[in-house]
Amino acid sequence: MSVKVAVRVRPFNKFEIEQNLPLCISMKGDKTILFDSTHKKEFEFDYSFWSHDEFEVDEKGYRRPLPNSRYADQKMIFNTIHQDTIAQLFQGQNCCILSFGQKLSGRSYTLLGTAENQGLVQNFVKEIFQQIAEKQNITTKYEVYTSMLFTFNEIIYDQLSPTDGRDLKIKENALQGVFVENLTKELVDSPESFDELMKKGILKLQKCQTLMSVLVSYANIIIQLEIKETITLDDQKLENLKLINFVDLVCSDRIEKLKDSKYQYLDAKIARPLSTLLEVICKVLLLSQQQDKKIIVPYRDSKLTRILQKTLNQKSNIFLYLSISPAINNFQQSLSTLKFANKIMKIKNDIISNIKASENQQILDLSEAQIQTQSQIIQSSIKQEFENKQEQELNRNTQYIQQFDKSEKIQSDTNIRCQAIISTKDGIIELQPLSQESCGQIFINNHQVKELTKLYHGDRVSFGNTTSLLIQYNGIEKPKIESNLTLIQKDTLDESENNQIIEEQNKSLKFDQD
Ligand code: ADP
Ligand code: MG
């Protein structure tokens, strides 16, 4: 659902040019500024269309913008605002297009245009038929029906009725919802056949205008398009209706301005549909945002809003076009036209700022939650890191302990393996490894010793990596040493034993440890 407001300013008309009336409108982006020598009123709408000047008329009579000009021509307006409207219509979003402003401000021009400058209605119809041609297939068929009616003084007039078509009644039932009873619906099969029907309706309207004098400006003219979609599946038929209402609204001028004061009693009755319409749009907007609140939309307060009910609700797209005169003499009227729609814009802006506020709150909540989560993550990662470090430390310690144990074991193994007996025989010192394991660990002058080996003066005997002996014969070439020496690496014997061995060694050998 969406409500869009667009304002459009027309060129000076003949009277305004003759009177040389000053311009009182300027536009900047989506802003419309109404000014005179002392006042400046600024309004912001969804769109502000400059159709005042900077245009040329082409060979076909079409008003197109001059190169690089800001003039908003008929097609440009349709293309700018209604890119998605028809696609959304086919998807089930009904549509209401309202044209509002003072008399001669350009309401009908925007909606219906002229033969050379076709308005929104014709552009819609062309696009609808184009989409139907693309969408239609064996199972899905479309039929387009059109009606034309107007309400004046709360009476409904059927403009396509072959008879009088006056004072139609509004009915409601479960099947059709709200509808105008006995309203003529003509099947149209092309934009051309639609144009023919429009001519017929407008002709009848002009007759009414003659009959009813100036009062036709105080009528709400409605053009309805009903697209019937029939989907055939096996033997079943499914029907969907898509509705679009174009409304050339009663002029916003107060009736007391009319010279003919005999109609003044109608003033309130004529103003009521407009105020009800505004109320309905505002309530629908509010309702679309506050589903839970019981907002009553006052459709029943006017025939106009009741007829439009199916296209003025939370499921539809609503477009309000404001037409304003560029001339200073219409300052007050233009001001009241702009103020009319400003109420809608205020609600829209409130809704937008509420949405933004709630989005911001959500973002805040989210970021708070994120911060919490982040800090939780950080805390847990710190904890994890700490635990990891502890574990690493523990592992390292365990490894260290294991290595230590291993080295201790190796050490003690080595001790066992490195055992050898050094003895003297006939003045010659000999070394006898004690076991097979010892052989791998005992070296004389870096040569491995595996069996009984003679030791000479200056030989260096190594046991594993830690202990070595330097053999010296104390100046005697062949000393006589009787005692046998058992060399067992330190720590494997108790100290007293060790001392004894060393003492014994010192008797004949100089014991040198690295
Ligand atoms: P309303 O329906 O509001 O009474 P009309 O749509 O009949 O007014 O416009 C009054 C006159 O101004 C018409 O002659 C119309 O062609 C002309 N007019 C209105 N809007 C434009 C526009 N945007 N560009 C050119 N001419 C315009
Ligand atoms: Mg008109």
TrEMBL record:
A GO cellular-component term linked to this record: microtubule
A GO MF term: ATP binding
GO biological process, one term: vesicle transport along microtubule
Kinesin motor domain segment(s): 2-347
Family recorded in the similarity comment: Belongs to the TRAFAC class myosin-kinesin ATPase superfamily. Kinesin family.
Name recorded for this polypeptide: Kinesin motor domain-containing protein
Natural source organism: Paramecium octaurelia
